[in-house]
Amino acid sequence: MTKQEKIVSMFDEIAKTYDVANRVLSFGVDRSWRRDACENALDILSQKELDLVIDVACGTGDMCQYWSKISKEKGVDLKKIVGVDPSKNMLEVAQKKGIEADFILGEAKDIPSKDAKADIVSISYGLRNVVDRENGLREFHRVLKRGGVLVILEFMKLPTDSIAAHLRDFYMKRVLPIIGGILSKNYNAYNYLPNSIDNFITLDELKDELQSVGFEIIKTKDSIFDISTLTIARKL
Ligand SMILES: C[S@@+](CC[C@H](N)C(=O)[O-])C[C@H]1O[C@@H](n2cnc3c(N)ncnc32)[C@H](O)[C@@H]1O
Fold it and tell me: What is the set of domains in the chain, with CATH numbers?
């Protein structure tokens, strides 16, 4: 099995308990991070009609649900939402929620869409899992319309000497694997999370990578203790 296949199979294994574990482990705060990301992106685009939002690494569909809900709240006529994920079991959970979105099996580096069709591409807590990140970012750029926005929510690697990094490290490495392991009965998956953050890139590195494939950085925003970071970039 390749590294990418192992990651996807891990999500297949934890799909059924993924939502409960997320709510418990984030104390429900992940909802406000997603809401905030969608609100910011829709405000930045500031259009009353949108053709397409593609949520990559959509998992169990939470972000798609927020795109649907928040576009309605803001009076935006959003014609289509598509969720893409390589995990069959995560998509199965998403499909049962009655979300107004199409869910398609696929990977970041090979998005099932023609060029320049999407107004928004989002990826929440998914980029760390994309082994071929360079081609993933290129795909996001390819499927976006010119001027369209990319919305990334992620646990970025923090400078190791920061207080926020120590606090987050303690929670992610000592507390989260135990609670996540109990809820999912899969301790490996919840050990993978802190390791994947350690092996990920910093916000500055992400900005460089985005700029090098043709994005302009519009906004970055850290949550309390820099746990989660929102990055919004525009296709030039
Ligand atoms: C931590 S979950 C995030 C799910 C969802 N976006 C959320 O916010 O809850 C990571 C997701 O990334 C997906 N994934 C893993 N490798 C991927 C890839 N190469 N391309 C797209 N998605 C991938 C997994 O299947 C999993 O559903």
Answer: 27-156+202-235 (3.40.50.150)
Give the pairing of strands 144-154 and 118-124: parallel
Ligand 1 lined by 15 (C-beta under 6 Å)? no
| Those residues with Cβ within 8 angstroms of residue 197's Cβ, 6 or more apart along the chain or in another chain | 128, 155, 156, 157, 172
| 192 CB neighbour count, 10 Å cutoff | 20
Residue 93 Cβ < 6 Å to ligand 1 = no
H helices present in the chain, as ranges: 3-25, 29-45, 62-73, 88-95, 133-143, 163-170, 176-184, 187-198, 203-212
What distance in angstroms lies between residue 4's CA and the mean position of ligand 1's atoms? Answer: 11
Nearest to 101 by CA among 40, 147, 56, 149: 56
Q: What is the DSSP letter of 210?
A: H
Give the bridge partners for 118, in sequence order. 144
* Residue indicated by tokens 């998992």: 59
pLDDT tens across 162-191, in order?
Answer: 888 888 888 888 888 899 888 888 888 888
- Report if pTM > 0.85: yes
Which pair of structure tokens corresponds to residue 206?
């992400």
**How many whole angstroms from 87 Cα to the centroid of ligand 1?**
8
Write out the two tokens for 37. Answer: 């990301």
Side chain identity at residue 117, one-letter code? K
